[in-house]
Specification:
heterodimer, A: alpha+beta, Peroxisomal Thiolase, Chain A, domain 1, 8 strands, globular, B: alpha/beta, 2 domains, eleven-stranded mixed beta sheet, three-stranded mixed beta sheet
Chain lengths: 214, 389
């Protein structure tokens, strides 16, 4: 009996990070914890699709319309994920996002605006979005997360890295939970996968599971 | 469990850099001591009709120096700058490449000018990272950190965490960004470019001067690998977002204050233990004032503080790393570098701006940076005592 109690105590103390919620936006559909919540099959334009998602989920955040495509995708995915646990958001939750193409759409827009010879002029409203970590800033502002923020770039989804870094943040006491994910958009091709990891019961935070869930 | 007591110590050593002041660390340190600056007046009609100030690397010298190294193949200007910066580290630590050694590359815009060419592939930061890591023969997947102007110093912090949590034993950390029309025109549109070389913390400051540079450092848990004359332990680090505005810093310095406070708590020191601050000091009104707020809140208003921006300009994703490398090299000689461009105090709160080279026993250095997206980073370095080795 004592041995069993000790076993549980030990497990509780050393509980690992698990995936407690996750959200996907891809192929004109929105999923929360694996359940389809919205579908706009046939909508091929990213801009119309993401506006449809914004309206469908009543996100009520007018700043959305000013954002570049990466921030629109990031704020939408994170809002759908976080609204469900709104009263329970840890202000110290870290944000760790990653992608391949940085913020290429707004970069191209800015580049085009400065490549027209004498006619060229840059727009501060575009320029301010020409860094991928602005997406982290937007999520932090909306949910008042004064926390660790980092944006990483890889050739493709890198579950091993996300596991290593998210686990280091909780292990070293930098945060108690981590909003993690992959957020990629290039013109009309997009894939957003965000999840929350925490030392609570949930889906095991493993490479195999992340590959399955993205 | 007391996390602090169980932490694996992590050290940095062998810092290097490539700037318009010099293509190695020694030339840069000597340049600062001689009062030379990397910023100069430039004329480039492609950027703007009027002359402008910027810290631009002499590409002829860069290409010539690079061609003396052994790297084969085609490399962009930024890739050459990064390889020049890590060449010595790669040679010195080749023996560690197969011992859980990673590489972190920090850059905000990488080869961004590739966007206006047909060679779109080189725009991707991972492409640049892979070229650099392949060139030195490192097989692990490169990690790119692109977190605005804190990237360079945050990269050291990420390396430390990944080592302390057992995933890696060593890291090569390299940062770099170019002086590009892309960024210059953007800051112009913000009216944030200074008409003269930037003047951090000065009353007459009117904005930033842009620059280009690369810098590198080796991060390891193996004390025996560090150079006897330059070894620092990373004793605390934190990066807290302001959650306030995407392009302006918090007026109260909240994120920076919390970052500094967390780093001090981790290091188990109070503000009086810090010998000097290598600050961000971009010379915009908002940034410098925000730093004054944060340092005062952290009881650091009497600690000597310096910004290196008037020497190198704002080098974006390289800045935090470059400034750490320079600050540690000065600390090796128990010197505090000067904060150039400061004549009349231009902040609403007191700060001890170190306006000339000062001899002082330097044991603990605080490096901070802040940037777009509300980002802030603070890292504390402590000089290794030689006989502990």
């Amino acid at each position: 009996m004592e041995a069993i109690q000790l076993f549980f105590l030990k497990n509780a103390l050393q509980m690992k990070n698990n995936i407690i919620h996750y959200c996907n936006i891809k192929n004109s559909e929105v999923y929360l914890d694996g359940k389809k919540l919205y579908s706009a099959k046939g909508e091929e334009q990213f801009s119309s699709f993401i506006k449809g998602v914004y309206k469908n989920f009543d996100l009520d955040y007018p700043k959305f319309y000013k954002m570049d495509p990466l921030c629109k995708l990031a704020i939408t995915t994170s809002s759908i994920l976080l609204e469900g646990i709104k009263d329970n958001i840890d202000p110290n939750m870290a944000i760790v996002l990653s992608n391949k193409s940085s913020c290429i759409d707004v970069d191209l827009k800015h580049q085009a605006s400065i490549s027209q010879g004498d006619e060229s002029y840059a727009s501060p409203a575009n320029f301010v979005y020409t860094l991928p970590n602005i997406a982290l800033g937007e999520i932090s502002i909306k949910y008042k997360l004064r926390s660790e923020n980092s944006f990483f770039i890889f050739d493709g989804f890198n579950p091993e890295f996300l596991i290593k870094y998210a686990n280091s943040l909780t292990l070293l006491g930098k945060s108690n939970s981590v909003l993690c994910g992959w957020i990629e958009v290039v013109e009309n091709e997009y894939n957003a996968f965000m999840f929350i990891v925490k030392q609570e019961t949930g889906i095991a935070f493993t490479k195999e599971n992340l590959i399955k869930l993205i | 469990m007391n996390l602090t007591q169980n932490k694996i110590p992590v050290y940095v050593t062998n810092g290097t850099c490539v700037t318009p002041l010099g293509i190695n660390l020694i030339d840069n340190i000597q340049g600062i001591k001689d009062g030379r600056v990397a910023i100069s007046k430039n004329i480039d009609n492609n950027l703007q009709k009027d002359p402008f100030y910027g810290a631009v690397i002499n590409k002829e010298l860069l290409n010539k120096t690079f061609s003396n190294l052994k790297y084969e193949g085609q490399f962009s200007t930024l890739e050459k700058m990064m390889l020049l910066a890590i060449d010595e580290i790669a040679n010195n630590f080749k023996g560690q490449f197969n011992d859980k050694c990673g590489i972190i590359i920090s850059s905000t815009k990488g080869n961004v000018d590739a966007l206006s060419t047909d060679n779109r592939e080189t725009y991707f930061l991972h492409h640049l990272a892979k070229k650099v890591s392949n060139a030195i023969g490192l097989e692990t997947e490169p990690i790119v950190l692109s977190n605005a102007c804190v990237s360079g110093i945050m990269a050291i912090s990420i390396a430390k965490r990944l080592i302390q949590s057992g995933s890696y034993n060593h890291f090569i950390v390299v940062g770099g960004d170019l002086f590009s029309k892309f960024v210059f025109s953007g800051f112009q549109s913000f009216q944030a470019i200074s008409s003269e070389p930037c003047k951090p913390y000065d009353k007459a400051r009117d904005g930033i001067t842009l620059g280009e540079a690369s810098a590198a450092i080796f991060v390891t848990k193996d004390r025996a690998l560090t150079q006897a004359n330059s070894c620092y332990e990373v004793i605390g680090d934190s990066s807290i977002n302001d959650a306030n505005h995407i392009s302006g810093p918090s007026r109260t310095g909240e994120g920076l204050f919390q970052s500094v406070d967390n780093a001090m708590k981790e290091a188990q020191i109070d503000s009086s233990a810090i010998d000097c601050i290598s600050s961000h000091g971009t010379a915009t009104n908002y940034n410098d004032e925000m730093e004054a707020q944060a340092y005062n809140r952290a009881a650091l208003e009497k600690t000597p503080v310096f910004s290196l921006k008037a020497f190198f300009g704002h080098t974006l994703g390289a800045a935090g790393l470059l400034e750490a490398v320079i600050s540690l090299a000065f600390a090796d000689e128990d010197l505090i570098p000067p904060s150039l461009g400061y004549n009349e105090h231009g902040l609403t709160l007191p700060l001890n701006i170190n306006n000339k080279i000062q001899e002082k026993k330097v044991e603990i250095i605080l490096k901070t940076a802040s940037g777009f997206g509300g980002s802030n980073t603070a890292v504390l370095f402590k000089k290794c005592i030689t006989d502990e080795k």
